Amino acid sequence: MATRGTFQKIVVAYSGGLDTSAVIPWLKEHYGCKVYAVVGDVGQGAEELAGVEKKATDSGAQECKVVDLRRRFVEEFCLPMAISGAVYEGRYLLGTSIARPILAQAQVEYARAVGGDALAHGCTGKGNDQVRFESTYAALAPDLGIVAPWRLWDLRSREDLLAYLKKHNVPTTASATKLYSRDRNLWHISHEGGDLEDPWKAPPEDVWMLTQSPQSAPDTPVDLTLAFERGRPVSLDGAAHTPEGLIGRLNEIGGLHGVGRVDLVENRRVGMKSRGAYETPGGTVLLEALRGLEQLVLDRETLRLREQLALRFADVIYDGQWFTPLRQALWAALEKIAEPMTGQVTVRLYKGTARTVRRRSPNSLYAEAFATFGRDEVYNQQDAGGFIRLFSLPSRIAALKQLEAQRAPGP
Known about the structure:
The chain is α/β, with parallel strands linked by helices. It contains 14 helices and 14 strands.
């Protein structure tokens, strides 16, 4: 990698926030280079993207490109994650984690297009995102340099960043007070900082943005029916949607009913614990529907394997290892497991909960003729006795050995 001061064109993963607004002039000052900004639209919303190109060029960028990644983000990243059942530490639906690889991939593609020789990001030296961005750089562009300003500069606070921008005449709408640090995309929104830094404090209601309080959610439940083909959702209540449109609609309905709130103290990849409040209403509904469908179509051992692979898949996503042979191998197995997952599932939303109430599939392994408590002609209950005797044989042998030892005469 080139040494400091030798880069000619550095491409920044730009958001328009305070950090990346400071990154651009800092790179120009310390490297004497041209800086290009790229913004990945993963569904953060029109408000956040409004005027972002001008904001970047006002900060000193040669050019700023906004890339629409929304459909790819859902189809190639979010849906495989949902099908896998990946959930980090039992609670976190990985909304920030899953977006970083595609953002870094778009950054690399833009760097190739403009002839960039280095990549830069605004991630702090305490967080997971630096690992995710730079792991993607390593996999897709090992020949390009990497600049991580937060690990290099002497700016240490929000006040320092604002003072730096003022000194360099860079306009900003940011202020010295910012209650929460947020990250938003089509899959979720995360909240950190402020009162959330004290794990003894309950999240204030002003934290939440996508979801109503379950207490104030409608008193009447709503049923949503999702249709799937090979694990991928194809319609909602009989109406076809684009992948990103379906997630958006589930977010709206789920948020109205208070579904998808998570308050979690998690283990970061860099070693420390952090607390985050996450809202993933649409993802919560989708995962519940998928789990309801797999109850019908997966046999016990295959379901156990899916659950085991999901744990590993969650770690791979959380750690930013998407573009690795390990992730590809895991997904190959999970995609194969999902082949019979075609059918319809109805999920009932009510005051913060989402639970499957109906499911059907042409590939169902559930046979009422076998499961019924009524009279049947297909299952001989007397057969169960021999099965149980063989199944419990190791325990029987161990118990008999103990009895023999107890009855043996003493010395």
